[in-house]
Amino acid sequence: MENKLTLKKIKKMVSLLIITLFIGLTAFATVVLANQGTIKVDATVVNVRTGPGLSYDIMTQVTGGEKVTMLTEENEWYKVRLSNDQIGWIASWLIENTEVSAATNKIGIVTGEEVNIRSESNLDSEILGKVANGTELTVLFQQEGWTQIQYYGQVAWISSDLIKINETPLATTTVASAEDNSAPIQTVTTRSSGTNIRSGPSVESTVVTTVDKGESFTYLSTEGDWYKITLADGQTGYVANWVVDLSADQQPAPTANVTSLAEATIVIDAGHGGNDPGALANTFYEKEVTLDTAQLVANRLRDAGANVILTRSDDTFVSLDERTVISNQANADVFISLHYDSTEHANEISGTTTYYYHDKDMPLAEIVNGNLKQNGILPNNGVRFGDFYVTRENTQPAILIELGYLNSDVDQITVNTSSYQTSIAEIIYQSLNQYFIP
User: Fold this and answer.
1) Structure confidence at residue 196 as a pLDDT band (50, 70, 90)
2) pTM
3) Residue 52 CB coordination number (10 Å)
4) For 55-111, what is each residue's pLDDT tens digit?
């Protein structure tokens, strides 16, 4: 009898355990399903990145009204599944309609003399850096007395009392419209490989084919943000206007009237690399500090909305010819090559020097050098003519900057620091802002 009672108790406990487990699994599934809800993009155009941060590459874009499936969240970024089953990451503030794409971000101008940039929206958070009065920053959104900004490729915060918001969005490049009878569109040319051609004027339309960079197609009409084109086999399709360039009368597309840094394409060239180490300091090579500086410059310019191309983003060898080809093919508005100098005898000279080759390079050289002279940490040696391959063979406005001497005791201690390289990035940013003023 006692054994039967014990068996009944065991069966009852097992039943209760199964019920409890079922309820728990159901609740977990409910949470998972809730986390994987469908969210709608409110911004005009949103970048989808390969990872949860502004430093990750842009894999594609989604447009306003498109729905994506949220899979998970990490560091204010949503991992999403797109309509074509691609997996990517979107900044959560883009979805919450507190910020839109880079084309419509607002600019904030720092009003304090020396203002702290912080990692979070409170006075106890880490200070990421300091900015001077008049510095322009890309504003994401504001809340409870704090303003979220882009700062050297990352999201950061500044007190709202110390920044004035310019209500005018960042400018975007304009091109001749289909209705412009003075310059009728004849062809569209793709900017990158893997560009999707779709059956209709929407990212939800099926992909007809993918095409390579530089392919041109006959333009038929415009439907919203999409161009209807004729493919090589006679089929028609649609391509998004943000991934192509236009040509009129079978001539190359007209150069955009760049009137702000946000409209510009900037090539930043980190000197040397790979098996070409450049000059040697006591503990580091020139190729290392040029790359570190170039990446800081690129982040600062991207924060302002500029299209930045690095000739190298890691320790690889890139020939001088390749560097100029990158600039010329991109039709860059500016090419800036970054170097650190050395002399035959140590401590002969110190400081920065700006070199040009063509007359067209002089305006840029003078503006950059003027800011190096006024705001630079090291002495300034002025603007000089220099017969360097990357400036001589460049069809675009190009300069080469020597940012210090690695066999100078003073310079080598200074240049291999984040504070010095950040100051150079700020100087180049401010210089380009001046350069592109109409």
Assistant:
1) confident
2) 0.52
3) 20
4) 566 777 777 677 777 777 776 678 887 776 677 888 776 664 333 333 345 778 889
Tell which wins on pLDDT, 191 or 297.
297
Dist CA 342 CA 257 (whole Å):
39
pLDDT at residue 291 greater than cutoff 90: yes
Convert the pLDDT of each residue in 95-115 to its tens digit: 643 333 333 457 788 898 889
Q: Where does the pLDDT of residue 46 fall: very low under 50, low under 70, confident under 90, or very high at 90 and above?
A: confident
